[in-house]
Design a protein that fits this description.
Length: 87
């Protein structure tokens, strides 16, 4: 299972780990599955996504569009119409 699928599966079947910060804004928090004390901020401004995780900052774990697993997980949930709860 790839990392995006793992995050989405965990969120949908075990425990909510992705939250929207403010209603109507594209500002999210993604809690780490492996390290319960870590979380990442993801934001979309003018259709440009960013994340404060190491992979995004240094492009070590991103796709060809520069999107990390946290961004891809949120995009997937939004495209599938899954409601993302407020933090």
């Amino acid at each position: 299972m790839n990392r995006v699928a793992e995050i989405v599966e965990y969120h949908l079947t075990r425990e909510k780990i992705i939250y929207r910060i403010n209603e109507g804004e594209d500002l999210f928090i993604v809690r780490s599955i492996r390290s319960k004390n870590e979380s990442y901020m993801v934001i979309r401004e003018n259709d440009k996504w960013s994340c404060d995780c190491h992979s995004f900052k240094y492009h070590s774990g991103t796709n060809e569009l520069g999107q990390c697993k946290h961004i891809l997980s949120i995009i997937f949930l939004l495209q599938e119409g899954v409601e993302i709860l407020l933090a």
